[in-house]
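#help-structures
NK: newbie question, is this the right format to request a structure? protein is Protein AmbC
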Amino acid sequence: MTTLAASGEPGWLAAHRDEIRSRAATEGWVRIRGLPIAGRADAAAAIRALTDEPLTEREGFAPRTAHGDGVHSSSEWPPDQPMCMHHELSYRAEVPRQLVLACVTAPADGGATALADARAVLADLPAELVRRCAETGWRLLRSYTGVVGIGWPDAFGTTDRAAAEAYCATHGIEASWDADGTLRTTQRRPAVVRHPVTGQACWFNQLAFLNEWTMDPDVRDFLVGQFGPAGLPFTTAYGDGSPLDRDTVDHINEVYDKHTVREPWQRGDVLVLDNILTAHSREPYRGSREILVGMGEPVRVEPV
């Protein structure tokens, strides 16, 4: 990880913007420490200074609070629950290549945004798993029940069914409605992609994070009891539709753990991630924690 010490002088970010973005695009991430961030306005200004082509989030899983154009809160996730390794919005047809996170309030304990190099993860996964995922991609299945996560109006930014269906059709998502109004969607995306700048192959998906076997066992049992195995709010499969077994999902998460690095947040920290080169997670924490986030540089990734 590269850590740059900011001087705190006006214009420091603008003067170092190109270096920061270039290093993130090849090294995977850059942490900037010591910026004079006194509140949300300062954090939002830092994010905007480093972000090109802000991306509006669609198809999200957890609520966020907007803080002006292109800036929002981190996902609202229970503090005592980990958010496992993933690449932001990697299930979309168009994904953000860059994430910028700025710390307004550091937690009293825990809460790190942990990181893992997608190139190293790919190299360490079983060859047969990589081959299968490279050939078939991965599949995300969602049921917008309203019990877990956000409902489809928030996910698609509309209360109009026809508009939601049009979005799905445009973005390669199969959609159907149950009689009770539940929207079910399926989308297939590449699981191993080529980075648009470096050309390197990267493990880029949420195959393990969004799979039912990564859920808390009690939560999974409750959801299966409520909706049946086919009605889970979300799960994943191989691109050909074949289910993943628990051992495979556990092994993917173990490889992520092996390559995880973490650094506790400090107020004023800004973390610039290349979303394709780097997976990230959020660890459990105590106390208040406020991290603002910006996503930018939307791209359509190409499979290897």
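mod (FA): yep, format's fine, and the tokens are attached above. The domain at 120-255 is CATH 3.60.130.10 (Double-stranded beta-helix).
NK: thank you!
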